[in-house]
Amino acid sequence: MITYLAHSPTTSIEHVVLYKYENDTLVLSESLKFEDLATHITDQSQLIFFLPSSNVSSYSFDAGNENNPEAVFISGIEDNIVEDVSNISVKTSPTNGLVVNKSLLDKLNKELSHISANVYMYPEHLLFSGSKDTIVVKDSHIIFSHLDGTGTSIAKEYANDYLSILKDATPNFSPDIFSLDSTSDSIFKDMEVKDISIFHRGFINNHSNNLNLFQFKYSFTSILSKSSFTKLQLGLLAACLSILLISPSIIISNIKSNTLLYKEATSDIFKSLSTKITRVVEPRSQIDSLLGKGIESVNEIKIPNIDFIYRLGGKFVSDIQINFVTSTANISIDSMPSMQMSLISNMGESFGIEILGQDTSDVNGLVSGVITIKFNNA
Known about the structure:
By secondary structure, the protein is of the alpha+beta class. The chain has helices at 69-77, 102-112, 159-169, 196-206, 220-226, 231-273, 283-297, 307-313, 338-347, and strands at 2-7, 15-22, 25-33, 45-51, 56-60, 88-92, 96-101, 118-123, 134-137, 141-145, 151-155, 176-179, 184-185, 189-190, 192-193, 317-323, 328-337, 353-363, 366-375. Helix content is 33%, strand content 30%. Strand 16 and strand 17 form a beta hairpin.
């Protein structure tokens, strides 16, 4: 597995030194800007970022079985906090409590969220944690790592003052002292030099036991960086998002256009019905008002009462042709018994029907032909 470790050579985070390990073997180290980290780290890897311990206030803390350990931790150290509580971020583990400037931590989390690898962030002094207190001397500052998991980093010009405080607080203070750069130093004189890769290898295998300060910050670009989209897939995704964003505007514009056309068409209909219409407010009631009189004045059309014909011999009727203009009807009959035909002729007036004429023939008592009747349609 590929593991990257990033340190700042100073107590600042503007520049970092990036180390690349493959299967515990150091294969690369390079200096770069912090903002360029994402471009140097490959997928399917992990990044361990070391936050300079000068930016972290660490305390020994027994979380025990507390339901809200962070609140308990803050109440215990509030006299040591010089910043407003709203400006700090507090993290706790079973044995330690950490205080970090909230703006700084948010900035780091935002930038590190754009890295495609699995990201971990720890105070730098944890890298040098061992079986006893440790002091690590670097060019510009000194890192103090204590047995209880606390630690800090101090600029060299303030190191003697901090050492005096430590010795007063811990009379038997006897740390291991190493240098990563030189065998001699103005403060500690002769020192043992250790290669940083010795500490790296041990930390890579055990770092998950520590409290991870990194928290992924969700954004469009950070989500894309965590995905494995190809350029084509990104193009399709961008096109889909564009359609989703543009579609509502197009739909709303189309609705407005159709609404305007409807209003104009409605207005044209009213103007064609009456020149007195200047404004359409309630189309339904206004159209009913305009058409009401005309609808009421139309004469009802009465259907001729020829039901009696069907009762007397409906199965012999082959066709009926009605003329409502002349209020007449031609009824074609086929092989109707002459007795039933006689009943129809005699009973027509009783049903408001007048027999105008008969163009029929009687063959062996069966009548066929056309009967012309008149009905009242007034």
